[in-house]
UniProtKB/TrEMBL annotation:
GO MF term set: adenylate cyclase activity; ATP binding; DNA binding
PANTHER family in the record: TESTICULAR SOLUBLE ADENYLYL CYCLASE (PTHR16305), TRANSCRIPTIONAL ACTIVATOR DOMAIN (PTHR16305:SF35)
CDD domains: LuxR_C_like
Keyword Nucleotide-binding recorded: yes
Domain HTH luxR-type: 954-1019
GO biological process terms held by the UniProt record: regulation of DNA-templated transcription
GO CC annotation, single: cytoplasm
Lineage of the species this protein comes from: Bacteria, Bacillati, Actinomycetota, Actinomycetes, Geodermatophilales
Name of the protein in question: Regulatory protein, luxR family
InterPro entries registered for this protein in UniProt: AAA_16 (IPR041664), P-loop_NTPase (IPR027417), Sig_transdc_resp-reg_C-effctor (IPR016032), TPR-like_helical_dom_sf (IPR011990), Tscrpt_reg_LuxR_C (IPR000792), WH-like_DNA-bd_sf (IPR036388)
Keywords: ATP-binding, Nucleotide-binding
Source organism per UniProt: Blastococcus aggregatus
Length: 1022
């Protein structure tokens, strides 16, 4: 059994044929995949290698490899050839070429045998029968060589399988080729590769049939490739394939499209030299390529250079269309305009063909693999890019005419399509009133099936047409302000609060002058709810105050209740506590009196989370009741808010496991309701990712962060949270993910949480990579933004400062070691500023909320104080014990990282046993998590401190250095010069210099400082 090979990459090279090769010349030069390690195709390569291994054992075998053009057959065969060569197998490769009606007999065998003829050691050219093949000349159908001539190469072969009948004129040639291959295989096993058999001439097909029947017990493996999409019903290769698969030892292997993950890996590798690839480009290429490596390459070139569909790729795709009859091309145009899938009845109604003619044409395009029949009976293009190419080739007038014909058919037969389809075709045919009405109908249908993203798309399409449709209000059954509010609600549901704010502002502008105050108030408080999601607390407070001013408190009403509930939240957010308390009390009383459970639950959450000093048990009881009322009311947004706050309260108390139960419940519920990217579900998912990371389930955390490729930009912090694991594992992908997230921050200026998530991971990355100034600069930049955006809650600086202090302390220690006082002063000052920023944030928070910091914040504060002590040059064992204990609430990784520093401190204080215990505990966690940087640091500590940790054994100094060299090294670590070393050891300066040179050579160091650092990390300092 051949071992499973490692992951492989796949891309077409020669196999896409001469047409693609010429087309590719027009594409901007980019790096190629051909010479890179393969990604994917592991199972297919393993099967092919099994055939090679069987041949090496004396059992001939054949694999017929099929796949669409560009899917990667040639790249796989290239890899096979390399692997076979590494096994000691001789590889011969022949290529068929598309020469149209002009065929050159035996062309792939001429190609295959060319290296044989060029090798004088083989002496294969002695047979005159083979001379035309070796010369690369056409071979006559009736060879002129008399029977019996040709020497040993024409001797009968002792095979049990009877060869297929051939005429006497070609038998000698066929026998000569078979004999030659047997002779080559007798020296060492042979792999024969024949590419693009769909282009093989008839003579070559006959010779292949003959060889496969004769070569049954020879150490020869044959692999032939062909394009499945080129094999129409009457293709001459079809009957040969059917005949060959009946032979013993012949099997078929279909090369399916690559999985999206493999295409993504290939695209990233191809674009690597151009810098980080935007996720939008990557996702677009992966989706449109549909697993075809060549298409992915061409689309990437287009994506990086502004093309919708590369001209070269369009030409390649249309070449197959243009080979079809005019009626077939017309049917393909109808299908392309109709959509990816099209019903038979629509094609019949629009194409203009009678039943008999239509059946003939459909058979033609299906048998040519241009259209395929889906399970539901509809026709679809074999590849989406083929449809794009057909569409791109249509003249504008022809496209409008086809859209109009399809729209007319769908209007006559509403059951034949959806409202969304009718809207699309009406719009493309310039029937704006029809498109407007159909868009509204499509929006209602999308809302009915829980598809808010599609609902928003259709509502915005209707809004865009409003001014162009004279009777828009009559057709819509509502005024423009109402439609704007409906669209804003859909935007909030899909996680686009900025869009919702713009729509609601537009609704205020178009409200009629005589609109009811209650209607205007509803727009104001809804706008306030949207504005707070884009960090505009002051603006949100203005809008909620405007809503309160429009509606009287008495008698109680639904509008006034929601206005008061909203105003309470906004007032708390800007620190106007008395105003907030009054609004909250009013809203709660009115909700109770009117039975508005949704409003009651909403204001109960606001009170429970905004009033400092509230008993945690009382908060939990209040939230539990709010959840019951929210569910009873059917208000999904309020229900999600309650679940988020239940998860947050539990999380802040250190109940990570229970918090995960709430986050899982909330994300599952939101997904079922189709609102998973509205504000609170997105926050629940982010909390879920973070809690999994803290609990030490890093694989699950990473999977949840990347559960969907496409997320709204305001939910980008969910994907950015994957940085926690990527940085912790030392994954090279961390840098690209961080660059992507940071690139969004200027555009999403209101997204403070994205900045916090990204900055925290970037600081950690800089810390591990030894870039202290970068860590300090990033922490200070985000802290300034925090103070600007949030008046009273700056606790996010605790993690940033605690992480940034790590490389600052390292830099301070290194500067002290070499006596660089200026550097010591600089880093001590930076460390002091970071620590003070953290302490100031805590003071501000406590002044507003009291001493109610969550356990994570307390743990990071303990880390800040312990790292600040390192900056001051203190071992601070007790501060590090406090940090270890503080992170024991459930933050597995940070507790292990604190244990690492505690082990260092204990070692500095001479407690070797305690240091070994802490280091071993941290090392076990690092191994389990795959936290490579932490594991490396712990093993370096073990070597430096000569501790037995995680299988690391102390290195004996005497095994590396002589006793005198060890003495010299100890003095070098104290910063001594050669003269000082000589004086202290009573040796000459020249002798000391010789010892130093020996030490540098043994450590592979370029200087004294580097030598000391290397020796320390390897535990070689006395």
């Amino acid at each position: 059994m051949v071992p499973q090979p490692p992951a492989l990459a796949l891309t077409p090279r020669r196999g896409t044929g001469s047409v693609l090769s010429e087309a590719r010349a027009t594409i901007v030069a980019m790096p190629r995949w051909d010479d890179a390690p393969m990604v994917g195709r592991a199972s297919e390569l393993a099967l092919l290698l099994e055939a090679v291994d069987r041949a090496a054992a004396g059992r001939a075998g054949t694999v017929l490899l099929s796949g669409d053009a560009g899917v990667g057959k040639t790249r796989l065969l290239d890899e096979l050839a390399v692997r076979a060569g590494e096994r000691g197998v001789r590889v011969l490769i022949g290529h068929c070429v598309d020469l149209g009606d002009v065929g050159l007999p035996y062309l792939p065998f001429v190609d295959l045998l060319r290296p044989v003829a060029a090798d004088p050691s083989l002496a294969a050219g002695a047979n005159p029968v083979l001379a035309p093949l070796f010369a690369g000349r056409p071979v006559p159908a009736e060879p002129a060589v008399p029977a019996g001539e040709g020497g040993d190469l024409t001797r009968p072969l002792p095979h049990r399988a009877a060869p297929p009948p051939v005429n006497d004129g070609r038998l000698q040639l066929f026998e000569a080729v078979a004999a030659l291959l047997c002779e080559l295989a007798a020296e060492r096993p042979l792999l024969v590769v024949l590419e693009d058999l769909h282009w093989a001439d008839r003579s070559s097909r006959d010779l292949l049939r003959y060889l496969l029947a004769r070569l049954s017990d020879e150490p020869v493996a044959v692999v032939g490739s062909y394009r499945a999409d080129d094999l129409h019903r009457r293709h001459p290769l079809r009957p040969l394939l059917a005949e060959l698969v009946r032979l013993p030892g012949v099997e078929r292997l279909e090369l399916s499209p690559l999985p999206d993950s493999d295409v993504g890996a290939l695209v990233r590798r191809l674009a690597a030299t151009s810098g980080p690839l935007p996720d939008s480009v990557l996702e677009d290429v992966v989706i449109r390529a549909e697993g075809n490596a060549f298409y992915a390459e061409e689309l990437l070139a287009a994506g990086l250079h502004g093309e919708a569909l590369p001209l070269a790729l369009t030409d390649v795709l249309l070449a197959r269309v243009e080979q079809r009859s005019p009626d077939a091309q017309q049917v393909l145009r109808v299908a392309a305009v109709a959509g990816r899938r099209v019903r038979h009845e629509l094609v019949a109604a629009v194409s203009g063909l009678d039943d008999g003619g239509l059946q003939t044409v459909l058979a033609e395009v299906v048998h040519s693999h241009l259209l395929v029949v889906s399970d539901d009976g509809r026709y679809r293009f074999r590849h989406a890019l083929l449809r794009e190419a057909v569409l791109a080739d249509l003249l504008p007038g022809e496209r409008v005419r086809l859209h109009a014909a399809i729209a007319g058919y769908l209007a006559r037969e509403p059951a034949a399509g959806t409202a969304a389809e009718r809207a699309h075709h009406a719009r493309e045919s310039h029937d704006l009133p029809g498109a407007f009405a159909a868009s509204l109908e499509a929006a209602a249908a999308a809302r009915g099936v829980g598809a808010p993203a599609e609902q928003l798309q259709h509502l915005e399409a209707a809004l865009a047409l409003w001014s162009a449709v004279p009777d828009a209000a009559e057709r819509a059954g509502r005024d423009q302000a109402a439609l704007l509010q409906e669209t804003a609600a859909a935007a909030r549901t899909v996680g686009e609060p900025s869009r919702a704010v713009a729509l609601l502002r537009a609704a205020l502008e178009v409200l009629p002058a005589g609109a009811e105050p209650a209607e205007r108030a509803r727009v104001h408080y809804t706008l306030a709810q949207a504005m707070v999601r884009v960090e505009d607390d002051a603006g949100a407070h203005r809008e909620s105050a405007a809503a309160m001013a429009l509606v009287p408190a008495q008698p109680p009403s639904r509008t006034r209740t929601w206005a008061a509930a909203t105003h309470a939240r906004m007032s708390y957010s800007v620190g106007r506590i008395d105003e907030a308390d009054a609004a909250a009390d009013e809203a709660l009383a009115a909700a109770d009196a009117l039975g508005f459970d949704g409003a009651w639950a909403d204001i109960a959450v606001t009170q429970a989370r905004s009033r400092p000093g509230t008993d945690p048990a009382a908060v939990r009881a209040r939230l539990d009741e709010a959840l019951l009322r929210a569910r009873r009311s059917g208000d999904v947004e309020v229900e999600m808010r309650v679940i988020f706050n239940l998860a947050t309260v539990t999380f802040e108390a250190g109940g990570i496991a229970e918090a995960l139960e709430w986050t899982a419940l909330g994300t599952r519920r939101a997904r079922d309701l189709g609102v998973e990217w509205s504000y609170y579900p997105a926050e629940l998912r982010h909390l879920h990712v973070t809690a999994l990371y803290m609990a030490g389930d890093w694989d699950a955390s990473l999977a949840e962060a990347d559960v969907l490729a496409r997320v709204p930009e305001m939910s980008a912090h969910v994907r950015a949270a994957a940085l926690l694991v990527l940085v912790g594992r030392g994954d090279p992908a961390a840098r690209a993910r961080a660059d992507w997230a940071r690139g969004l921050i200027p555009r999403l200026s209101a997204h403070v949480l994205l900045d916090l998530v990204t900055a925290g991971s970037e600081i950690d990355l800089a810390a591990w990579e030894g870039r202290p100034q970068e860590a300090v600069d990033r922490a200070q930049t985000v802290y300034r933004r925090l103070r600007q955006e949030w008046d009273d809650d700056h606790l996010g600086i605790l993690r940033l400062a605690g992480t940034a202090l790590m490389p600052v302390a390292d830099a301070t220690i290194a500067a002290r070691r070499v006596g660089d006082e200026a550097a010591v002063e600089r880093w001590v000052r930076a460390g002091y500023e970071l620590a003070e920023a953290a302490r100031t944030a805590v003071k501000i928070y406590r002044k507003t909320y009291g001493d109610v910091m969550g356990v994570e914040a307390q743990a990071w504060l303990a880390r800040v104080e312990a790292e600040a002590a390192r900056v001051r040059g203190e071992s601070a064992v007790e501060l590090w014990r406090a940090a270890v204990e503080a992170f024991g609430f459930g933050h597995v990784y940070e507790q292990a990282r604190s244990r690492w520093r505690l082990a260092e401190a204990l070692l500095a204080d001479g407690d070797r046993a305690g240091a070994a215990e802490q280091a071993a505990a941290a090392h076990a966690v690092a191994v389990r998590l795959g936290a490579t940087p932490l594991r490396t640091a712990l093993e370096a500590l073990a070597r430096r401190g000569r501790l037995e940790v995680g299988g690391v054994r102390p290195v004996e100094i005497g095994a590396v250095f002589t006793p005198r060299e060890a003495e010299v090294l100890a003095l070098l670590a104290q910063g001594r010069t050669n003269r000082q070393v000589g004086a202290e050891l009573f040796i000459s300066e020249k002798t000391a210099s010789v010892h130093v040179s020996n030490i540098l050579a043994k450590l592979g160091a370029n200087g004294r400082t580097e030598a000391v650092a290397i020796a320390a990390n390897r535990g070689l300092l006395p």
